[in-house]
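Quick one:
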Amino acid sequence: MYKIRHDQEKSLKIKILVVTHKPYWMPQDTIYLPICVGNRMRDMQITSDRSGDNIGDKNPDYCELTGMYWAWKNLKADYVGLAHYRRHFTVKKYVWSLEKRKKIVLTNEELMPILANTDIILPAKRKYYIETNKSHYNHAHQPVWLKETGNIIKKHYPDYEAAFKLVCDRRWAHMFNMFIMRKNYFDAYCEWLFSVLFMLENNVKNSGIKAEPRLYGFVSELLLDVWIEKNKIHYAEVGFIFMERQNWIKKIFEFLKRKAVPKFGRIK
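Output:
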């Protein structure tokens, strides 16, 4: 693990992308870099996933990953992270007031002591308790593509196969494609992730099956843990907050409905 010396703290360049597709409040700490994805805000003076070396045209299917790809190819920094306009890291206790949540978003001052002891930060685990990651995915999405992802890994990255199965069989995961990583880890992860996703995309196009929107964004949420597990990388967990009110009654209802009637049909 790379150790940050006290005299290095001020010279480190840390950039956490805040991915957005619409005008929204943004944290003002200099570690944050707002980035527009989906080509919807040409008139706003923020970084766009359509600049430089990019895959911005894939945003409807890749979601926040088009911003992540942009950072991989174009951003020079010592640490790179990803958050969302309505979802941020925090080390403080949850507050109910939406306005007060803006004041507890992770700051550079709070981040430095954590990075002194780890190279990667992930959001707190999301626990499913009554089902595995695989069953949760299959009830909400097209099961065929998670299975095809496993086939791609088995064929092209066989040393990741055991980790893929382990993550699929778990009842928790680090979701939302949120992270903060030292740049060399970030580069290595992107190299592997986009290799898998581009092969999956090619297979989808040749299958004759119409894929659901945001497919590669959904699949990638499980692949982060696969990469972490296979490479035995130490990480720290940090809390996260939603910047909008959550309709938990609706979420619970949709969760139970998917168990009774899976969105894309029953899994055989």
